[in-house]
């Protein structure tokens, strides 16, 4: 029986809270604290009516600006939770980690820290807290959503059970859902647009970067090429040192496109994106040489995004308008549909998973593990679309792993650093069952 403080009351937090209510044997008390208290109250009301008659956590709500470290510390000290779950926005990560250290409580989040004035994320800021959490005897679990999150649990599972070394990993994130709007984002619009309008990049090991090293050529090319003139996709690239280990190979946004036929969804265009878990997996997977991340986008989304970029609506710096300063992307966010409102309209399925290639007992192995999630089934169960669902469910499972004493290593950790088996078992029980194949269609 545990007491949890949940910060945030948006789409993902709503699912996590609902799933905690379904696991009231573990989550006995819950404080939902967020910037807008009315959303916390609405969430409490929804849970209490959705699960009326069943044993539920005792739910309290509060208004909190989590950028205010003193106020957050005071609230944590007063409520005395066993764990703080940060499901607000990545901007709040460091402030909430500071508050957790001051109040002596462990921490979990679903996204890498991002400075508000720089559309850029990496682990360095949160990895800088490793020693502080370790010395305090506290645990910080970073990025416990689906991707990041489950993709790293899948990686740890593959490494533990099927490989001696993993050489390449492709993470494929497909959303085959349709919400009927010409343009809307499935999670926080500001964070989403910052992510997809950034340069594309993939991770390569130090051994793959050294000048003179050779890599396979792209489809339609023959032989090998010496870095750094061209990369394996045949597109112009630049190299940037990753924080701890390896290199980022950077491309123009959406420069690398592939078509993939996803189980239960069908054929979709997918594009190479920069993504946070590539960096930690590059450090933690034995023998890894290359990690890529692809996400599907429809043409309408891309056309709208390009147009919004071209007119400056995705800018993150303040501009003067009628005598006041506004940040265009924040104004755009106010115009776009709230991701939490997409649930009733979204039909179709997501398919997110990892394709590994490596070696076991001297023999080559290919392995694909993925989850398929139905938007309408999520809506029927917790009132949300599948993107919030596939993020909120793992956040709850991560909290459960900590509270049940299964994921308790002290310090700051990403999900592949823990034992994947109990988490994989929970995915099957909590609504995100996974499938596996040893004969996947690979991405060239
Ligand atoms: P929403 O915008 O729907 O919700 C964000 C919530 O945080 C809102 O309730 C908001 O309050 C609250 N909030 C914002 N600023 C503050 C603050 N200063 N203090 C307290 N509360 C604050 O976002 P989502 O639910 O879509 O996303 C939540 C998180 O999940 C994000 O970090 C996102 O990047 C991450 N994510 C991770 C994924 C993964 O697979 N790992 C996938 C999808 C999302 P208000 O209601 O006032 O706006």
Structural commentary:
The structure is a single chain. By secondary structure, the protein is α/β, with parallel strands linked by helices. It folds into 2 domains: 2-109, 3-Layer(aba) Sandwich (Rossmann fold); 150-322 and 326-384, Dihydrodipicolinate Reductase, domain 2 (2-Layer Sandwich), CATH 3.30.360.10. The chain has helices spanning 11-22, 37-50, 69-79, 93-103, 124-127, 130-136, 150-161, 189-196, 206-209, 277-284, 299-310, 328-335, 375-382, 386-403, 420-429, and strands at 2-7, 27-34, 58-63, 83-86, 106-109, 139-142, 165-175, 200-204, 214-216, 224-226, 238-241, 247-251, 257-262, 266-272, 290-296, 319-321, 324-326, 349-360, 363-374, 411-414, 434-437. The strands form 4 sheets. Strands 7, 8, 11, 12, 13, 14, 15, 18, 19 and 21 form a 10-stranded mixed β-sheet that branches. Residues 216-227 have low confidence and may be disordered. Bound molecules: NADPH dihydro-nicotinamide-adenine-dinucleotide phosphate. NADPH dihydro-nicotinamide-adenine-dinucleotide phosphate binds next to helix 1 and helix 14.
């Amino acid at each position: 029986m545990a007491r949890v403080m949940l910060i945030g009351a948006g789409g993902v937090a709503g699912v996590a809270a609902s799933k905690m209510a379904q696991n009231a044997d573990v989550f006995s008390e819950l404080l939902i604290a967020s910037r807008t208290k009315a959303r916390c109250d609405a969430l409490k009301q929804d849970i209490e009516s959705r699960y009326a008659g069943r044993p539920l956590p005792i739910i309290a709500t509060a208004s909190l600006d989590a950028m205010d470290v003193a106020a957050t510390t005071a609230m944590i000290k007063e409520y005395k939770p066993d764990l703080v779950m940060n499901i607000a926005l990545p901007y709040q990560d460091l402030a909430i980690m500071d508050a957790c250290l001051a109040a002596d409580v462990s921490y979990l989040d679903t996204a890498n820290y991002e400075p508000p004035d720089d559309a850029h994320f990496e682990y360095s800021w949160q990895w800088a807290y490793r020693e502080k959490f370790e010395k305090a005897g506290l645990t910080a679990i970073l990025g416990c959503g689906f991707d990041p999150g489950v993709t790293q649990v899948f990686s740890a599972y593959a490494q533990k059970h099927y490989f001696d070394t993993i050489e390449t990993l492709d993470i494929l994130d497909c959303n085959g859902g349709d919400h009927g709007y010409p343009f809307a984002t499935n999670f926080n619009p500001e964070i989403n647009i910052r992510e997809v309008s950034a340069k594309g990049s993939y991770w390569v090991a130090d051994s793959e970067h050294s000048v003179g090293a050779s890599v396979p050529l792209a489809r339609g090319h023959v032989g090998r090429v010496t870095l750094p003139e061209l990369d394996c996709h045949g597109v112009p690239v630049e190299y940037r040192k990753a924080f701890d280990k390896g290199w980022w190979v950077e491309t123009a946004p959406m420069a690398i496109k592939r078509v993939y036929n996803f189980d239960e969804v069908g054929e979709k265009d997918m594009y190479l994106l920069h993504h946070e878990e590539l960096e930690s997996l590059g450090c933690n997977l034995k023998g890894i040489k290359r990690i890529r991340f692809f996400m599907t986008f429809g043409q309408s989304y891309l056309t709208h995004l390009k147009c919004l970029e071209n007119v400056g609506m995705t800018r993150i710096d303040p501009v003067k308008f009628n005598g006041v300063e506004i940040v265009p992307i924040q104004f755009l966010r106010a115009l776009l549909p709230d991701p939490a409102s997409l649930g009733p309209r979204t039909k179709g399925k997501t398919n997110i998973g990892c394709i590994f290639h490596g070696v076991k007992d001297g023999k080559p192995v290919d392995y694909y593990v993925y989850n398929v999630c139905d938007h309408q089934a999520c809506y029927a169960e917790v009132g949300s679309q599948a993107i919030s669902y596939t993020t909120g469910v793992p956040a709850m499972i991560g909290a459960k792993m900590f509270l049940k004493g299964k994921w308790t290593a002290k310090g700051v950790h990403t999900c592949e650093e823990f034992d994947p088996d109990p988490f994989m078992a929970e995915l099957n029980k909590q609504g995100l069952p996974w499938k596996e194949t040893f004969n996947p269609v690979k991405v060239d």
